[in-house]
Write a structure and sequence with these properties.
9 strands; seven-stranded mixed β-sheet; 244 residues; alpha/beta
Amino acid sequence: MVHEFSRTEMLIGSEGLKRLKESHVLIFGAGGVGSHCIEALARSGIGRLSLIDHDTVSLTNLNRQSIALYSTIGQKKTEVMKEKISDISPSCQVFTWQAFILPDNLNLIMNEVIAAAGQRPDYIVDAVDTVSAKLAIAEYAVITGIPLISSMGTGNKLHPELFEIADISKTSVCPLCRVMRRELKKRNIRSLKVLYSKEPPITPVFSEEDGGTRRSVPGSISFVPPVAGLLIAGEVIRTLSKTG
C-alpha cells in the first residue's frame, strides 16, 4: 500500500520504518540547524518529537530557518514547528517547551519531557548556541546513556561540503570545538559525537544593528545551517532505523 513514507521504506525496509515510528527524538534548538533537522526527522516517520527552544521567529531568521516566514514572525519557534509537522506527518506526536536551557533547569525539563512523551528519548540532538547549555546536555547524555549528537559552529561559513561528523577529540580548526574540548576535559567527558567544519570562520563584513547599537553576531547564509541540520538528521535516522 502506498503511504507517505513509501519511498523511505524502500531504503530502510519495513522494520526500519517501524523502528522510526517507535522512536522518540529530543531536539534542543529550532533555529537554522534545528528546524531543518526536525523537519527531516518528521519527513522520515519519527513517531515522537520533543522540541525545546526559548525564542520567537524574527526578521533575521528568514535567510536560513525552515519555519521563518513573514507570516510567522513573532510566533514561538516550537509552536510554528509543531504546526508544520502536523501538516507533514499528522501521526507524529510533538511535545514543545519554550525554555532557555541552563545547567540548573535541564534535569527538570528532561523529567517533563519523559513524562509527556511516556518514554525517555532514544536520541538527543543539540542544536543550541550556548556553551553552558551544550555542556549540560553532554553531561546529561553521559549520565543517562542516551545517544547525543551536538552541532558545532555553523555561522560565518560558506562551504557546507566541509561539514563532517566525528568525535570531538578528532576535530580541528573550529573555535567552538576547541572550547568544548577544553571544557569537556574538565568534566572528564572524553567522547562526544559532533557535526563540525574545518572551514576557517569568515570575518563578518559588518556587525548587526540592534536598537541603534552595533553588536557582533555570526553571519549566516541560506545553504549552510540547513545542510548541517540534514546531516545530523541523517545520522539519527540511520542509527535509529539500524541501517548504517
